[in-house]
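Hi everyone,

Forwarding the result from last night's run.
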Amino acid sequence: MNKPSIGLKAPIAGSNPLTVAIATEFNVLIKWSMIRALWVNRVQGWLGLIKATALITIGIG
């Protein structure tokens, strides 16, 4: 009588827990690498901005 519970689980690769776990890990990895890339871009952007302002202030002063 426990059959309906299979339908509630992630439909990825049926009810094999190993493939579901691998798929979940993969999704998490992709998400984190995207977030990290965004942060790296943002930090580099800020550093570039700070460098530019420093150069401008040094040039003016």
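The two ends are 80 Å apart (CA to CA).

Cheers,
N.
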